[in-house]
Specification:
This protein is an all-alpha fold and 431 residues long. It has two domains: 155 residues, no CATH class; 216 residues, no CATH class. Helix content is 87%, strand content 0%. The chain contains 17 helices and no strands. Helix 4 runs parallel beside helix 6 and helix 12 packs antiparallel against helix 13. The longest helix has 53 residues.
Length: 431
């Protein structure tokens, strides 16, 4: 896989996705208000961690499996569909039984919608992992784009007609995710050879794949809890409306990760297939380029970020503008971390990935317990930045120790990077 060409294609599609997602988020936040946005953010955080738990790390497991073992794509696709069906059945049953035991019938609708979105998101991630593991970058990109655009169109139409309610927004989410699954799965089926398979072939090797994805499951699970810890902690400490303010600031600041996440996923697949000096060089160059990009963007947003939040989300989210600027240093650090960490992900998630995420999570929770009572939501935002910068420092130190590289190789751009970018753009333009 050529990182430059794949990155530029993904970046172009990501720009469209970003515009659609930011606009969708602004429509939802304006339509629901801070308190409603807080409930939506809590639901979304639950889906994020729930989908990871439900998929058992099989996005990463499928990437790693495809990089080393000849597994028929249609078998992986059938496993994903069966896995998702089991998740939907188990989650729905648990919600119905829980509602019966605790007598909370009024939450059944929202609970069943949670089960539906949860299962669809788990399948979507697993199927995208198949595409990425086989280096079908276009299929991976188109699937994500279809979900973002589908969600944007559905929410926009809803806002123009019946108005926004939490349940109807979640139905739009489920529909858009189903569209992504169909597009991504169809791409795999169409590109794959027609190989016969049976239930035995689907079951055979499934346990090994689950085991292969377990380190990823633990690491990414801890990271998701780390990223969404504020959502769960601030609600009892400062109220749901403050969660709405923080969620707007966090979601907007997380767009700092979008370009790094593109490179991180591409590099993950490359390192998984080739862990030699060439892969190390690609990671270090990509990290330097991301440092250049994010440093510039951070400075611009530190100057005009508060006004941007006010313009996009309205005067009701004035506090979110302050929180956004406080989050920027940490989000920048975590964006760089996504690229550096791709080396460890491609190496099968060694212990440093688990211990790093654990240490960051424990630190964030402990510091929030001190800072939030004293400084409110602003204290939580500062804690987030401090913890993310510390996590980046740990991964840079471990990368240097593991590969024999120097820290400037990761963090200080040089003249060769300019030539690389120029040559890549010229090469892409000729295609």
């Amino acid at each position: 896989m050529r990182v430059g060409a794949a990155f530029l294609q993904t970046f172009a599609i990501q720009v469209l996705q970003s515009l659609a997602s930011i606009t969708t988020g602004a429509i939802i936040a304006r339509g629901l208000g801070p308190a409603g946005q807080g409930r939506y953010a809590t639901f979304a955080a639950g889906v994020a961690i729930g989908a990871l738990l439900a998929s058992l790390g099989q996005f990463h497991g499928n990437v790693l499996a495809a990089a080393h073992i000849r597994v028929p794509p249609r078998v992986l696709l059938a496993r994903a569909a069966l896995h998702g069906s089991l998740v939907l059945a188990a989650a729905s049953l648990a919600i119905l039984v829980g509602a019966h035991i605790f007598g909370s019938d009024h939450t059944i609708t929202l609970g069943l919608l949670f089960a539906l979105v949860l299962s669809l998101e788990a399948v979507a991630e697993m199927v995208r992992g198949i595409n990425l593991g086989q280096h079908h970058v276009t299929g991976w990109n188109v699937a994500s784009l279809s979900q973002r655009l589908g969600y944007f169109c559905a929410v926009g139409l809803l806002a123009l007609t019946t108005g926004l309610q939490l349940e109807s927004i979640i139905m739009c989410w489920a529909t858009a995710t189903l569209l992504s699954v169909l597009v991504s799965g169809g791409w795999i089926w169409w590109r794959s050879q027609s190989e016969p398979f049976s239930l035995r072939s689907i079951w055979k090797g499934w346990t090994a794949r689950l085991g292969q994805g377990m380190r990823a499951f633990v690491t990414v699970g801890l990271t998701l809890i780390l990223v969404r810890a504020d959502t769960w902690m601030l609600a009892p400490m400062l109220g749901i409306a403050t969660v709405g303010q923080m969620s707007v600031a966090t979601y907007l600041a997380e767009w700092m990760w979008y370009v790094p996440s593109i490179l991180g996923n591409l590099l993950f697949a490359i390192v998984a297939a080739d862990r030699g000096k060439r892969a190390v060089a690609q990671v270090t160059r990509s990290s330097r380029l991301i440092v250049s990009l994010l440093s510039f963007v951070m400075v611009v947003l530190l100057i005009g970020g508060r006004h941007l939040v006010h313009l996009m989300y309205g005067p009701a989210y004035e506090q979110a503008g302050v929180l956004f600027t406080l989050l920027l240093p940490g989000m920048t650090a975590l964006g760089i971390h996504l690229v550096v960490d791709s080396y460890f992900a491609g190496n099968g998630f060694p212990p440093v990935t688990i211990w790093g995420a654990t240490g960051a999570l424990v630190s964030k929770i402990a510091l929030n317990l001190v800072a939030v009572p004293l400084f409110g939501a602003a204290g939580a935002a500062v804690v987030t930045s401090v913890v993310y910068v510390g996590l980046l420092g740990l991964k840079v130190l471990w990368f240097v120790r593991t590969t024999g590289s120097r820290w400037p190789d990761l963090l200080i751009p040089n003249g060769s990077d300019v030539a690389y970018v120029r040559d890549t753009i010229q090469s892409f333009a000729r295609v």
